[in-house]
Amino acid sequence: MEEQLAELAAKVAELEVKASVTNTMFAETFYYLTIPLMIIIHAGFLAYEMGASRQKNVLASGVKNILAFAFMVPTFYYFGWWVYWAFPTGLTFTAGGMGISGIEYASFALPWNESAGPNLDDRSTGVFWGAFTLFAATTASIMSGAVIERIQVVGFVILAIVLGSFAWVVAAAWGWHADGWLVTKWGVHDFGAAGLVHAVAGFFALGVLINLGPRIGKYNPDGSANDIQGHNMPLTLVGLMLIIVGFWGFLMACVIVPGEAWSWYGDKATTIYGTPMTLGALAFNILMGFSGGIIGAWWVTRDPFWMMSGALAGIIATASGLDVYWPPLAFIMGAAGGALLQPCARFLERRGIDDAVGAVTVHGTIGLFGLIMFGVWGSGLPALQGEGVAQVSLLGQLVAAVVFFLLGFVPGYVVSFILKKMGLLRVSEDAEILGLDPTKVPISAYPEGINISATPAE
């Protein structure tokens, strides 16, 4: 009997080891796959911005977007990743209640640590870092579209680094971390990063636009605004759809999946706060928010550009609560986000803000809208796993909205103001009039020109 029990115990132990290995491999593969999916976001932004640019600025817009992505990778590796783990409790670098933060804990994120490179005993850090790096790159690309056709490349790269490897990372540490003070003290919940990615990036762009100024020809002497159309609307629409495709990877990477040291609930998926959820919730609510956003924008504008922007706004409007919303509510939130887009964008335009692609509205305004509304719909839900934890409330979400707005707008305005004084923010008037492609880029986007055919009027 004793021999049989020992043999049974050995088999159970062997199965547990195999299950652990399987879970770890699944977690590693899951996050690894989110990375190429999120790169599709950047293919989308690339097409979106080039299509929204006039023919004389197409490649300059593309170069800027490519550099934003490229500079995020090393800067997030060298210091952005460390900031996320060191700052959750504020500027004191102390460990929080879960013990997964603070200056001592964050040492694993330093570039000379063994976890910051190939390590057969650490199969999680690299892929999780990769997912976060793509979050950082997304914030830079959000800002990128707003400033096309007149910003200097050097100034833009500096702004992208400040936004992507510092400003949004502080927001994530405070509001997207189980030890974040906004979470533990105020019960903030922002599952899909409507506030801490989209709103931070959107209002960072607003701060930059105030100092950058409008494009030449945008406004008439009487203050009325002209509609400066891009050279290729179909390319812009395809780009927006690619961003939606990549969003599935973005939101996948917001999930803590089962695996060694990955989930608070063992074999169940959780949010980054440790609260339980399912991938089914994402399947329901992403699609409902997406469709609601298109329909809401169509109802108000009938404009294809705003309809596809509405799809993005619909997902952002629901992002904070994608893990818990009932699908009809996600549809309503998405439709509201889509309907708000054009009126909010026109409000900014009438005040002299030349946002070439509506990024401030799509990401900033709608991001805060979704964050705050979750305080209404999700009030009373636990913000963390465990007993006696802070609960979601409208007040807490409002506090987060103010913090995220400031973390975006203040550095965006201050750094761009300094760059402006240094002559590094805007290209010369002559270069802007002639076009950034012929003056700043060594090749032409359309060396043989663009053929435009028209049916003769009858």
Structure description:
The chain is mostly helical and 458 residues long. The chain has one domain (2-440): Ammonium transporter AmtB like domains (Ammonium transporter fold, Orthogonal Bundle). Helices cover 63% and strands 0% of the residues. The chain is built from 14 helices and no strands. The protein has helices at 2-52, 58-86, 125-146, 153-175, 181-186, 194-212, 233-252, 279-301, 304-319, 327-349, 359-377, 394-421, 429-434, 436-440. It is globular and about 90 Å long. It starts with a helix and ends in an 18-residue tail after the last helix. 52% of the residues are buried. The model is unreliable at 14-22 and 454-458 (pLDDT under 50).
Question: What structural class results from the helix and strand content?
Answer: mainly alpha
- Described by the principal axes of the CA atoms, the overall outline is globular
Distance between the termini: 99 Å
SSE order in H/E notation? HHHHHHHHHHHHHH
Number of self-contained structural domains: 1
Number of helices: 14
Radius of gyration: 23 Å
CATH topology, anyone? Ammonium transporter fold
Can you describe this structure in just a few lines?
The protein has 458 residues and is mainly α. The chain contains 14 helices and no strands.
What is the fold's blueprint, element by element?
Blueprint lengths: L1 H51 L5 H29 L38 H22 L6 H23 L5 H6 L7 H19 L20 H20 L26 H23 L2 H16 L7 H23 L9 H19 L16 H28 L7 H6 L1 H5 L18
Helix pairs in contact: 1-2, 1-3, 1-7, 2-3, 2-4, 3-4, 3-6, 4-6, 4-12, 6-11, 6-12, 7-8, 7-9, 8-9, 8-10, 9-10, 9-11, 10-11, 11-12
